[in-house]
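Posting for a labmate who doesn't have an account.
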Amino acid sequence: MNRPAGSDTTTEGIRVIAEATFLPEDSEPEQHQFVYAYRIRMKNEGTRRARLKSRHWVILDADNNREDVRGPGVVGKHPDLKPGEEFEYTSGCPLRTRWGTMEGTYLFEREDGTPFEVAVGRFFLVPSVTADLTR
């Protein structure tokens, strides 16, 4: 089930579900440091194998400051997904404002070497209603 702040996008048979959680214990609001964990679940719902090569994140904070993050793989891995297989990982994102958004793309490659991009739909980095932002 998709949370309102998350995203669920399918591109060329690769489904990517993203959701974020505010980490109050790692955040320092008075220092303008807000830390979020995000969880990504990707599943090959297509008929052909696909291997993740790299990532590109676009992170926007509440002041519309943009940060582009690019790199090989995800959390040091390059998942190689056969049809029906899935991979899940968790990572983190610091912000200087209370809320923001993330979206991006993964570059995948087919067995024959053909590259293709998979969209990660925009998801929100927002504290829960019960999060204590006053500490």
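Reply:
Got it, the structure tokens are right above this. The beta strands are 7-11, 14-22, 34-44, 50-61, 66-72, 80-81, 86-95, 100-110, 115-125.
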